[in-house]
Amino acid sequence: MTDAPFAARRHALGPVDLVPLGPQAIPDLAPRIATLDPWKRIGVAPEAWAARMAKTTPGGHRFVLECEGAAVGYLSIRHPFMRGPYLETIAVFPQAQGHGIARAVIDWMAAEAAKDGEREIWLCVTEW
Fold first, then answer.
1. N or C: lower Cβ tally within 10 Å for the chain?
2. How confident is the model over 4-53, as pLDDT tens digits?
């Protein structure tokens, strides 16, 4: 039997591991995410990030992006969502950018969605 899509467990994706978000990770991650665009540009404060990350939502799947045991980002997915999962947030910290992490996440999302027979992935993209 396979896991349900986006199961809350560790997922090894090659360049990064997805680790279920626990409350102990939020104080470290929230201020770091707030320094990244687009959230820095639109003024999302660390406290707002912390509240968003701590809030339980139906279909919300949240992960810490880890590389060699160090947090290098954050991932939030909503599933179910319309006809496939919705990539709510992917935040990759500067030291980990350019290493194929976002590509690995998208590929993993496609494989997870396929478990439910879904062929679409939803996301919102900004150019800044």
1. N
2. 788 889 999 998 999 999 999 999 999 999 999 999 999 999 999 999 99
Write the CB contacts of 46 (distance below 8 Å, at least 6 apart in sequence).
Answer: 30, 31, 33, 34
In 3D space, the residue among 109, 108, 113, 104 whose CA is nearest the CA of residue 72 turns out to be: 104
Is the pLDDT at 71 greater than 60? The verdict is yes
Question: Any idea how long the chain is?
Answer: 128
> Which residues, other chains included, contact 11 with Cβ-Cβ below 8 Å and sequence gap of 6+?
17, 18, 63, 108
How many Cβ atoms are within 10 Å of 108's Cβ, its own excluded?
A: 19
Cβ–Cβ under 8 Å, residues 128 and 37: yes
Place of tokens 């770091």: 32
For 79, left (φ over 0), alpha (ψ -120 to 50), or beta? beta
